[in-house]
Design goal:
Blueprint: H1 2-59, H2 86-90, E1 91-92, E2 117-124, E3 137-140, H3 146-158, E4 161-163, E5 168-171, E6 181-186, H4 193-200, E7 217-221, E8 226-231, E9 234-237, H5 238-245, H6 249-258, E10 278-279, H7 281-300, H8 304-317, H9 332-354, H10 360-371, H11 376-396, H12 399-405, H13 414-426, H14 429-447, E11 450-451, E12 456-457, H15 462-474, H16 481-486, H17 491-520, E13 549-553, E14 557-562, E15 583-587
Parallel strand pairs: 2-6, 3-6, 5-9
Antiparallel strand pairs: 1-10, 2-8, 4-5, 7-8, 11-12, 13-14, 14-15
Length: 589
């Protein structure tokens, strides 16, 4: 009886287990089918969206295909990077290549820092008895005229000087000839070091075109009511700096010889854009800084021809960044280094004009180099090639390689790393395409802010780009998260480029103005008087499209300016940053 019941129970449970198994299999098949349909649909939608977006961009003449950005092969004997030492000096090794043990000749050993004391200041009560040791001068701290009087004393004591690009104050006179001033300030309430620093902040004017605080002084307490005023940065005599950097001149001659070649193409594998070899930006920066400071030293010593010899190489050096024969930088970073180096150039030109050191031959040569300087085109090409590289990478990269590129594990929590690995592993390929659509269209909004043919930049149109980024960034969508990682805010890069190009244009006009001053003894009433004798064509304001603003100033100088990024004419008033106020070039006599 028990056996019968057991057999009956087993026979009845078997169909039930099969029914459960069938349901599970059907459910699994349905889920698998749904997943397959989901991946198929998302991949199809993404690929279709990208193909439509790509066709629209290519119809506008945009190059989206990365393979069309790769520079053509060039003969070795015409390639700058095949000249002696150029590869080891100016090409950054890849992560898989052992670092060279040969140091760059432009990475100089640090000098002993010299913080030059320019004045010792004693604070006394207004009716205090004269000191036993007489001061060079006595002033009242609350006297409005005292600041300019102190400024005159300091300028006369320090003599001609220039602010170097690498935290140097370069002086025309040797440091061992300098004697600090002894000043007495009468004050009812003794000022502290901060108040004294503000007092001295205007003492050296027109030293730099930087819009930040131009004070080059620091004030330290030296006891009760006694302070020492020193130069903020290292001080160095011009002749001393030239002697210290003379070791680089033979290497710069090697560079000059290499730059006689017409092309600059780094030989490497360009099929993986973010792993290709790129110029060594540190070496380029160091070389440009040494050359610009050597130029300043020659100007301080009244040697304009030697100064031009150094300055001309600053301009030519940038050819290692622009990937001839295409003339297009392979990365946006290369374009921005080019912009930064060309930002140094006009500052050094301005030093020579302030010191009245340039002569007609150098001014003509400088004007020609400035005329040939176009910063907008390389930066726009950099934007485009970054876009092509990003799209190509997203379309072809393996998940494991993308994880390495995103440096997973370096700055993310374990949970973030696991989540990111899981998302990238499981996401449909169509999501990559959707991210490519968003990123490519966002960059096009920025590119449309610049008209290369008319040399115009329209700052207010960058708001469309920023709103586009903000809109898609707030969605937290699988269609945008790769864009949020890979697409930075390029507006700052465009703003810096527009500013530096404006300064380049202003420097070109300043050279023409100085040539007229040398020839006729004064500056013209209007810029139109410069053509065609001193300049072939007047550059216009990149922002307004109108002529740059110009007027002569009291004392025999002039002011030249662009309306700047805020697109408002502020009457030649400099703002606290490049986003505010006008972009001003001022020459004082």
């Amino acid at each position: 009886m028990n056996t019968t019941n057991s057999s009956t129970a087993n026979s009845s449970s078997t169909p039930r287990r099969w029914r459960i198994a069938r349901r599970l299999l059907v459910t699994a098949a349905a889920v698998t089918t749904l997943i397959a349909v989901f991946y198929t649909v998302e991949n199809w939608r993404g690929k279709r969206a990208w193909e439509n977006s790509r066709r629209e961009l290519e119809a506008k003449g945009e190059v989206i295909d990365w393979t069309k950005c790769i520079p053509a092969q060039v003969p070795d004997d015409q390639n700058i990077f095949k000249a002696p030492h150029m590869q080891e000096w100016f090409v950054r090794p890849s992560p898989t290549t052992p670092q060279s043990t040969t140091p760059s000749p432009f990475a100089l050993s640090p000098r002993n820092e010299v913080k030059l004391m320019v004045a010792e200041v004693t604070i006394v009560a207004p009716n205090a008895a004269p000191a036993s040791q007489p001061a060079d001068a006595t002033f009242r701290f609350d006297d409005p005229a005292a600041r300019e009087q102190v400024a005159t004393l300091l300028r006369d004591a320090i003599g001609p000087c220039a602010l170097g690009s690498k935290a140097y104050v370069l002086l025309a006179h040797p440091l061992d000839q300098f004697k600090p001033l002894h000043l007495t300030l009468q004050a009812g309430t003794a000022p502290d070091a901060k108040a004294l620093a503000a007092f001295f902040s205007a003492s050296l004017t027109n030293l730099t075109m930087d819009y930040s605080d131009t004070s080059i002084f620091r004030v330290d307490s030296a006891g009760s009511n006694t302070f020492r005023v020193s130069l903020r940065d290292q001080a160095c005599g011009a002749a001393e700096y030239l002697e210290w950097t003379d070791s680089t001149t033979s290497d710069f001659d090697v560079l000059r010889k290499a730059l006689e070649r017409p092309f600059a193409r780094i030989d490497c594998d360009y099929t993986q854009p973010f792993l290709m070899l790129i110029p060594n930006f540190v070496t380029v920066r160091n070389a440009a800084q040494i050359l610009s400071q050597r130029t300043q030293c020659h100007l301080l010593l009244g040697q304009p021809e030697e100064a031009w010899h150094e300055l001309s190489l600053v301009h030519d050096l940038c050819r290692v960044l622009l990937s001839q024969p295409t003339g297009k930088p392979m990365t946006l970073v290369a374009a921005m280094i080019n912009t930064a180096v060309h930002g140094l150039y006009p500052n050094v030109v301005e030093d020579g004009l302030r010191l009245h050191a340039w002569r007609e031959p150098q001014l003509v040569a400088i004007e020609q180099q400035l005329k040939a300087t176009d910063l907008l085109a390389p930066v726009l090409e950099g934007f485009k090639e970054e876009r092509a590289a990003s799209c190509y990478t997203f379309e072809t990269i393996k998940t494991s390689e993308l994880l390495k590129l995103m440096k997973v594990g370096t700055d993310k929590s374990p949970w973030q790393e696991v989540s990111l690995r899981l998302v990238l592993t499981l996401m449909p390929r169509g999501w990559y395409y959707q991210n490519m659509v968003v990123g490519a269209q966002a960059e096009q909004e920025l590119l449309d802010c610049v008209d290369l043919g008319k040399q115009r930049v329209t700052p207010h149109q960058t708001e469309i780009y920023l709103r586009y980024l903000q809109l898609h960034g707030e969605k937290r969508s699988p269609y945008t998260f790769l864009v949020a990682w890979s697409l930075p805010n390029f507006v700052k890069a465009l703003q810096t480029t527009a500013h530096n190009q404006t300064v380049v244009n202003e420097a070109s006009l300043a050279c023409a103005l100085e040539r007229q001053h040398l020839a006729k003894g004064d500056y013209p009433e209007t810029l139109d008087a410069l053509t065609p004798q001193f300049i072939e064509k007047l550059p216009h304001d990149l922002i307004s499209g109108q002529p740059l603003k110009y007027h002569r100033t009291a004392g025999g100088g002039y002011q030249l300016y662009s309306i700047g990024w805020d697109e408002k004419d502020n009457g030649g008033t400099v703002g606290k940053s490049k986003e505010e106020g006008d972009w001003v070039w001022e020459q004082r006599q």
